[in-house]
Amino acid sequence: IARGSKVPRRPLQQFVGAGPWDDEPVRREMRQEIAGGLGDPEGALVVDGSGFRKYGPHSVGVARQYCGRLGKVENCQVGEFLAYATAKGTALVDAELYLLRAWARDRVRRAAAGVPRGVRFQEGWRIALKELARCGPELPHAWVLGDDNYGRVIAFRDALNKSGESYVLDVPSDRLVLRADGKKTRVDRLAASLAPEDFTRVRTRDGQKGPIEVDAHREIVTPIRHEARQGPMRREVLLVVRHGDGKLSYHFSNAEHTPTASLAKAAAMRHYVEEIFETAKGDAGMAEYE
Question: What's the pTM?
Answer without folding.
Answer: 0.89
